[in-house]
Design a protein that fits this description.
The protein has about 250 residues and is an alpha/beta fold. The chain has 9 helices and 10 strands. The chain is globular and about 55 Å long. It starts with a helix and ends with a helix.
Amino acid sequence: MPDDRRARGDAEFGVPFPGRVLPGERWTKTGLRDPGGAFDWTAVFGRLAPRVVDLGCGNGRYLIGSALARSDRDHVGVDLVQVAVDYAAQRANRRGLTNVRFVIGDAVTWMFERFAADSLDEIHVYHPQPYYEANAVSRRLLTPEFLERTWTVVRRGGLLVLQTDNKAYWKYLLGAAARWFAPEPLPGPWPDAPRGRTRREIQARLKGLAVWRMEARRRDEPLDVAVPEPDFDANRPRFRRARPLR
């Protein structure tokens, strides 16, 4: 007989993780080795269905909740941190999910090499690392090139979801994403997860930090506007001191 904690499902910072742990005979396998080359959704999931991707998925809280609520959609989570992917897959396995896979990988590689053009319906990026030091600016994920590629791989009418607790990143994304997508800032918590869709969001809200969210629909054609590189001050004094003189 499972213990009470496993029967209830685990929690993070007092917020229950989506779903519940099933009996062992109903567990599945959701961990995926990086296959290389173009990702074959039909071969992996055995069907044709709308496709949802979470880049930097962490421990899978959002994707697992979405997979449970939307069994008609297939989900892929990508993250560089092996322990996070292991936790995500373990939790998804114990919930008996068949419509989600988790893989260790780099978001840039997957966007430019694994996901084909016009192949995805939703891309989610929650709390991308802002990088506070001036010499780390080049490591920021959401560059104009990356946003353009996102527009390329998302189907007509598809959705880009962005969230951050860094005000400078938010201001940049509002302007940068608007060339390829139509941003709609969301004023309050997510209706499906009012205490937080991700571990990071839960932590941020417990600390009293503001969290900014948007859903942005793909434009049929990009706007004819210039988009700067994400060379913004991420609100750390050390970053400002390290910036080169112009």
